[in-house]
Amino acid sequence: MNAIFVDVALLMQRVFFGGLMLLFHGSGKMGALLSGTIPWSGPGQIGLGGAFEFVLIALAEGVASVFVILGLGTRIFAIPLVIGMLVAATVAHGDDPVRPERLSSITAYEHLNEEGKQLLQEEAEGSNRVARGLQANLEAVEEAETEDDRDEAIGRTALPMSSGFSELALLFLFGFLVIAVAGGGRFSLDRLIWPRLRALWKKEGSKENENGDDKDKNQDAAT
User: Fold this and answer.
1) How many structural domains compose the chain?
2) At 159, which helix (H) or strand (E)?
3) Do both 95 and 106 map to the same domain?
4) Do 173 and 76 belong together in one domain?
5) Residue 205, SS3?
6) Taking the CA of residue 108 as centre, how many other CA atoms within 13 Å lie in the half-sphere pointing to its CB?
7) 91: domain range?
8) What is the DSSP string of 95-142?
9) Same domain, 81 and 8
10) What is the pLDDT along the chain (223 residues), one digit of tens a residue?
11) Over the Cα atoms of the chain, what is R_g?
C-alpha cells in the first residue's frame, strides 16, 4: 500500500513540475525558437553565448519537460532541467536579495536585444494581455513630458521580480532533482515500456545462445 502512495506522489510530482515548466516557461521559449527569434544575446550566463544558451534552455524546458510528464526516459530528461535550474538559481539570479523587492520592468526590458523587444511588441499586438499592458506602460514612459510623469509611468511597470524568481528556480531545481533520483515510478511509460523491451532482448539473446549451442553440437558431430 505504501508503495502505491509513493508512485502516486511521483506521478503528481512529474505532472506538477513538468507541467508548470512547460506551460509557463518552455512553451514561450519554444515558440520563439521555432519562429526563429532568439531574444538572448551577448556572452551568456555561463560563457556559451546568449543565443546558444537560449536554445539549450528552450529545449530543456520545452522538450525535456514533456518527457518528464510522460515518464519516458524520466531520469535522463530530468537532468538538463536540473542543470538549467541550477544555473538560474546560482548564476542568473545568484545575486538576488533575500528580501523580495519590486523591480521596474524597465530594467528587464533594457536587457532584451532587438529581437526580444520585437517579440514583446508582437505579443502586445496579439492576445497577450500582460504584454499589451507592459508595452503600453513602456510607451507611457517614453512619452512622458515631465520627470513626475515619467516616475509615475515607471511605477506602473513595477513587477514583483528578483528574489521571487530565485526561489522559483530553487523549487524547480529540487523538484526535478527528486525526479532524477527517484525516477518516474509505477505510473510512467518507463515502467510500461522498459520491462517489455528487456524481456524481448533477453528472449532474443537466449535464442542466439541456443542457435550457437546447436551449431557447436553440429560441428562436434561432423568431426
Assistant:
1) 2
2) strand 158-161
3) no
4) yes
5) helix
6) 18
7) 1-100+166-192
8) T--SS-EEEEHHHHHHTS-HHHHHHHHHHHHTT-HHHHHHHHHHHHHH
9) yes
10) 578 899 999 999 999 999 999 999 999 899 989 988 888 877 888 888 888 999 999 999 999 999 999 999 999 999 999 999 999 888 876 665 544 444 444 555 555 556 556 655 665 566 555 556 666 666 666 677 777 776 665 555 544 444 445 778 889 999 999 999 999 999 999 988 877 777 777 777 666 665 655 555 555 555 5
11) 25
- Residues 105 and 21 both lie in one domain: no
**92 and 188: one domain?**
yes
Question: If you search the block for the grid coordinates 542568473, which residue do you land on?
Answer: 92
The closest alpha carbon to 77, from 17, 12, 3, 7, belongs to 17
- For residues 49 and 52, give the distance between their C-alpha atoms in angstroms, rounded to a whole number: 5
Is residue 55 within 8 A of residue 44, CB to CB? The reply is: no
pTM over 0.90: no
Type of residue numbered 218: N
User: Amino acid letter at 103?
Assistant: L
